[in-house]
Predict the 3D structure of the following.
Amino acid sequence: MAAKGGPQDKRPQRRARSLPSMQQAGSEPALSIERIVATAVELLDAEGVGGLKMRRLADRLGAGAMSLYWHVDNKEEVFDLALDSVLEYRGPPQRIEAADWRGAIFHMLEDWRASMLRHPWSASLLPRRALGPNILGRLELLGRILSGAGVAEADLNGAIWSLWNYVIGATITRTNFDLSDDDMAAAQQRLAHLSEKYPTIERSRLLLDSDWDGAFRKGLDFLLDGLVPRL
Amino acid sequence: MAAKGGPQDKRPQRRARSLPSMQQAGSEPALSIERIVATAVELLDAEGVGGLKMRRLADRLGAGAMSLYWHVDNKEEVFDLALDSVLEYRGPPQRIEAADWRGAIFHMLEDWRASMLRHPWSASLLPRRALGPNILGRLELLGRILSGAGVAEADLNGAIWSLWNYVIGATITRTNFDLSDDDMAAAQQRLAHLSEKYPTIERSRLLLDSDWDGAFRKGLDFLLDGLVPRL
DNA sequence: GATTGACTCGTACAACGTACGATGCGATTT
DNA sequence: AAATCGCATCGTACGTTGTACGAGTCAATC
């Protein structure tokens, strides 16, 4: 979309924020990207993807709707920033990467999944390409650990992507089928109708109660078994 | 959203379509869900998710915008139907499921991925929960093959979900980073900026040229090695 | 004091999904 | 034949959204 690589130097680059500048009546602490993103995450947590509207976001910030556009190009960017902000990774408890690479990978990927499950809207935003620094940081860390664990240079990209794919797939599936009780009942009924067309699904209660966490870990184990050469 | 399970019997259930009923001047073949969905897929292929608007869809069909709403509840449903329609599976060339379960699974999952890559918008629609008959059919088939291959009942759901997660994750990643040449150049430049923060990504050219297809197959192999008990 | 640049916001507009009700038409009933 | 009914189409209109535009405020600098 923004293909033409012109200068387009409309963006502020950096706000000096010299004084508090009381601005209203001494209450609202002035706009900033950080505050905008944090409030956007709040709003998304509370009302989902559809609940994030520029006017509402501005309201929560005690600002006019159009004020946001000085800090942000458009709504898309708010989504991108919110997504990346939720994926920050503070690293494993100790520095054990080299010795226990498997533990390090597990920790990072489970934290990844947990972070996204804490903010279910994040999964549905993932397919829209937004490579923020936190996401890149996770990919970088993943590559570094795998590389240290003995994965050959030629296999590195494949290994990184396999794990990434698995994690985001699992997260998307999980948030997608994390039905409320009402939905469960409805699904149950809808499926009962079709039990003769989908007997296996019906018998294993695939959509109703799967052990998501156990399945995630087990699949991850298998993947790692294959990706990293046994020593 | 549509939680209240009232009767809401507004939907037509079945159109008899008794006569061609020349309707206009003998040209347009009258509206139907099938035609609406097929045209929606065309439009999505041509212009992406953002390009599908009810008015435009109606235009392409030679109909008024509001005419669509007799066949369809809302735009969401158009998305759901388009997604499912693209995921139809005609089955493996021969009937070899029992003997060559690995081949059968590979065939189905690679076809799955290929179908979605042929319609890149489909990946971004997946996280919105829409279990059409074709998707359910694929899950059912997957379960049946795995079960026949010797996966224990207790492990079945986990195995199904692991494979499903992997496939949709891989597809989403692939469509997400399938950059045009312009985007590639832009990404290259943006990354050059950060090469000291992400040296591993930079060195392995992770975002620029990965062997997507090879990585997909390899990871799938590893998953299957783990999921299905070796005989 | 004048100018500048960072920042805010009220107004306005175009585009969208779709509610509502009118209309046409074939089949059925009277 | 006339009246009725159900399927199907569509024009108009409304509310909501993202955001373009330009005017406004205030502190820092000249």
In short: Residues 153-176 of chain A form the longest helix (24 residues).
